[in-house]
Amino acid sequence: MQYLAAHHNATKQELKTACNLSLPTINHAVSTLQAQHIIVESERRASTGGRAALAYAYNPNHRIALGVSVNNAHVVVIATDMRGNIVLTTERTMVLRTDSTADIPVCVEIIRTAITQLERNPLYGPVAGITITVSTNKPNAALRPANLPVTLTTMWSADAFERALHIPCTMVTHTLANAQAELTQQSVQSAIFLCIGTHPDGIVMINGRALQPPVLQATSPRITRSTRSNTALSQPAPTASPLSSRFAHMPVDPNGPQCSCGQHGCFTALCSLSTLPEDYESIPGFFSVLDQGEAEHKRRMNTWLSNIAHVIVLAQSFIDLPVIIGGDAAMFLADDDFHALQQRVHQLSTIPTQSPILRSVSMQHQDAYGAAILIALRERERYGTLASQ
């Protein structure tokens, strides 16, 4: 199946040669995949005297992948075929409340409406799975209730959606979904992806897949000498938001600002866009004044870029890969800022690196699209295994 997915079509004899398999094995694989509508008969090749050979082609519509992004009041549902081609996009607005269990049925109905639209089209197979990503990050942090991320990820579970829709559902972080979409648009398949907004996070992608999938459960309590007792260990400690991955709380500067996880100088605390504006400013307002050359804004910007450079150097000291800057930062940073960031990284690195720092493509509905791609990748791997059984 992997060969047919990568090529236009092929006969059984061509598959035998390309895959270095016996003809009985090819016959079995073709029959199995054809029964599942994963491959279809394509065309008859020109005959050289005998019977014309039948070619087979991959059918990317045999299953449909659904990605759902819930971003504050905005819900986006994107459906793709198994090659990642978008076949449906739905956008709706809903009001998110702190008691978010009441919002699940509303979101379920939005998803169900999209599924019904797909089912009406005979070209598309059934929905193979749904990936949901919840993000409440906005350029203006004042728009976001402080407890909303914790509430959403605590109360919104994949099980609740599975029970309502009867389709396999998974919840992933905003960062993973964005990174997965990014690699479909970039020329690289392995990269360190930094999603920098008001709640920065990061993830390492190797050969198109996450090296360390982000965790949605709370982090372990921090243990000190004063708390090293059975009583202390049995009591829950303040933890980071469940939206945060381990990358977000990578310690960068022990003398830095305190983070929500209790540590000082985490990546997410040092590099948040919300650290840039003055109390009276919005983030877009900060960059507007920065463009006018105001000295204090330039100083704050230089400090912020240096913090990001430290994060990049720290990450590349373990795994030297290109870095992709995504999130709202990709929209606000100018080309000169990327050049300055690259220079800082070279100055700080003890071992020189040639890995570039790239700007995110920032495609529309990137997180919802990436969520769908995760399903498509899983299904292609699963049916590749099916053909070999």
Automatic annotation (TrEMBL):
Annotated protein name in UniProt: NagC family transcriptional regulator
Pfam families: ROK
Similarity annotation: Belongs to the ROK (NagC/XylR) family.
InterPro entries assigned to the protein according to its UniProt record, in alphabetical order: ATPase_NBD, ROK, WH-like_DNA-bd_sf, WH_DNA-bd_sf
PANTHER family: BIFUNCTIONAL UDP-N-ACETYLGLUCOSAMINE 2-EPIMERASE_N-ACETYLMANNOSAMINE KINASE (PTHR18964:SF149), ROK (REPRESSOR, ORF, KINASE) FAMILY (PTHR18964)
